[in-house]
């Protein structure tokens, strides 16, 4: 087998120092976010000792980066959920104000219950209907689904 310059037959367990240094450096650079590349010693025994001392530190740094990334993702998701809930509450409050303007301040209890559990799409539909509806029942009427025709 032909090996690149600097290698000695790996099957025999030999690898030149310079190639070993390049392999170690290349491997460390592939670790996401790894920037603290130490100088690679010439002596392979020094490399082994250096790696043993640094592996725990690198492991902790990588774990810490993962924790930080997880926290950021969690915070962002929390913000998104909060915004969605706030939007939904705003839509519901607006619809209730409009309903009171159109149909009087004393709405039946079922109106508040339906608005409280509705999703954003339904609240928007009811908000559109209120512009033309003559009664609460028209606002909250179920949408007829088109029947499926056999293929």
What tags apply to this protein structure?
mainly alpha
Give the mean pLDDT: 78
Relative helix content: 55-70%
How many individual helices? 5
Cα separation of the termini: 65 Å
Strand content: under 5%
> Regions with pLDDT < 50 over 5+ consecutive residues?
1-13
Order of helices and strands: HHHHH
Describe the global form.
rod-shaped
Radius of gyration: 33 Å
Biggest sheet layout: none
Q: Which oligomeric form is depicted?
A: single chain
Number of distinct beta strands: 0
Structural class: mainly alpha
Description:
It is a single chain. The protein is mostly helical and 151 residues long. The protein is built from five helices and no strands. The protein has helices at 17-30, 44-103, 109-117, 120-129, 136-139. Helix 2 (44-103) runs antiparallel to helix 3 and helix 2 packs parallel to helix 4 (120-129).
